[in-house]
Amino acid sequence: MSLQHEAPRVLTVIMVDTTATYIAARFDDERIPYGRRTVQIELTPEQREKLLPRQTGVIKGRTQYEAVLTAWLEPLEDADDDR
């Protein structure tokens, strides 16, 4: 499936556990790979609409669309949130 012109349905995040790797390298002089887990979140219609790539032009008769360059997670800053 190409995301060129349709909104994504799922956000996939790969979480990495660097703690065990750090401890093994620092104290045991061992190299072990990071532990990983994958989390998938189904997007709501409103979220999908916000992530829909916009048309940017036409090259040789083919419509061009925006591409995802990067994404990151950050906390929602809300003065009323006590978490």
Notes on the protein architecture:
There is one protein chain. The chain starts with 9 loop residues before the first strand and ends in an 18-residue tail after the last strand. It has a domain at 10-51. The protein has helices at residues 19-27, 45-50, and strands spanning 10-17, 35-42, 55-59, 62-65. It has 83 residues and is α+β, with helices and mostly antiparallel strands. Strands 1-2 form a two-stranded antiparallel sheet. The chain has a two-stranded antiparallel sheet with strand order 3-4. The model has no long low-confidence stretch (mean pLDDT 87).
Order of strands, main sheet, comes to 1-2
Mean pLDDT across the residues is 87
Class derived from helix and strand content: alpha+beta
The fraction of residues in strands falls at: 25-35%
Question: What overall geometry do the principal axes of the alpha carbons give?
Answer: elongated
Spatial separation of the terminal alpha carbons: 38 Å
> From N to C, what is the helix and strand string?
EHEHEE
Q: How would you characterize the largest beta sheet?
A: 2 strands, antiparallel
- Number of continuous helical runs: 2
Number of E-type strands: 4
